[in-house]
């Protein structure tokens, strides 16, 4: 009986230690998410402005540009997968990896070869463990992504897009990431970046940018030169915004997961305390019974 009491005490102590850790991680995530959301809000106006500019050029010109041209028979597609560098975030990484694999399966059913570009240690580890190939990978900046990393990713993807499929180029570029919806909801989302599909919505999600009425433009220099300058910036801003969305979503997922872990630790402490009290009461009852039995034996 004494061994059982010691076991329950050890389990209670372990659950209390775990609760301290998860509570601290919950508070850290709560403090970081405000900064992450501030970065998302700061990047959104520029991203929308670039989207409107590219939409205006694409709407009012009929030029044949490499970044807006649809391939007649696309054979290779690039998928940029954004995950985190660390775990302890519930289903954050598993759901976005699942979304990317479903997109890849859909593209393969259309007869396209899929080339993966990976961001985050969780995506890299997942592909290495399953011996799946990736064209390029970036790690180490999932919590605080920088624009320089977004530019590197954009340059690598655009360089592959400008090559022919026979030269290991790609005909399409997709990005898969977790979009921050609320503190409780983070949704995996896949978007085709190239060939250009201007279907951006405003932050409230009410009116698509393609439905806006644009004034008539005269382009100086030529529209092709404007697209040469604008479209790389457009891809960079889209990727950077996706990185910031993913970082904010990861902090929210971590906070939610750590709160759930703290609640579970509380439940374990309550359950083990009840079991310890029951065991202690049984031990006391047994000792009293032994004393009474011994007294009766002596009296008889």
UniProtKB/TrEMBL annotation:
NCBIfam families noted in UniProt: ATPsyn_F1gamma, PRK05621.1-2
Superkingdom per UniProt: Bacteria
GO biological-process terms attached to the record: proton motive force-driven plasma membrane ATP synthesis
Name assigned to this protein: ATP synthase gamma chain
InterPro entries: ATP_synth_F1_ATPase_gsu (IPR035968), ATP_synth_F1_gsu (IPR000131)
Keywords: ATP synthesis, Cell membrane, CF(1), Coiled coil, Hydrogen ion transport, Ion transport, Membrane, Transport
Organism: Microbacterium faecale
Subcellular localization: Cell membrane; Membrane
Coiled coil ranges: 258-285
Main localization of the protein described in the UniProt heading: membrane
